[in-house]
Amino acid sequence: MKYFNFFLLIMVAVLLSNISHASDVDNYSKTIKMFKKSPEAKKFFDNAYGFAVFPTIGKGGAVIGGAFGKGQVYRGNKITGKTSLVHLSIGFQLGGQAFSEIIFFQDKRAYNEFVDGAFEFDAKASAVAITAGVQAQAGTTGTTAGASAGPATGRQAKAKYVKGMAIFIHARGGFMYEAAVGGQKFSFEPL
Predict the structure, then answer these.
(1) What is the C-alpha to C-alpha distance for residues 120 and 105, in angstroms, rounded to an integer?
(2) pLDDT tens digits for range 135-155
(3) Structural domain tally of the chain?
(4) Cα–Cα distance measured from residue 172 to residue 167, given in angstroms and rounded to the nearest whole number
């Protein structure tokens, strides 16, 4: 068991080390273009007040899990600041995964709620299986609105704003089973 936990710790460290490359401007542009290819997400680009985009979020765990990612926040098409996501959870979980995430803000109120600096999504319970960009299930309860299996698959959940926010996730790789309690917490730093 000690070796297994050590292996998982190494796997999480490798996933999280890949996030340091996410600050590259190209990664933000490519991630936004990828989400714009999704017909369901495109509707949100057309009418959202703003959005936050995370090119790569690394997540892993064995009973205790965590995730981390860095992103940028936009109002319209202008960058207004940097954001980071931290997720801690406890419960049955095993594996590691990497994914991209975008959060759309329906109006000024939702945008301001996010950029006030200590926004947090509610607890979640999910089962996630990712293979070659296909995601069986993703999302969180509470303030989430939808999830994407990825623009290339053609299988996407219908999304709508919930409490002024809508979320899309695109699987990048890995495998993780999770039935855990936790939540995503965000910080914001204006430019």
Answers:
(1) 14
(2) 333 333 333 333 434 444 445
(3) 1
(4) 16
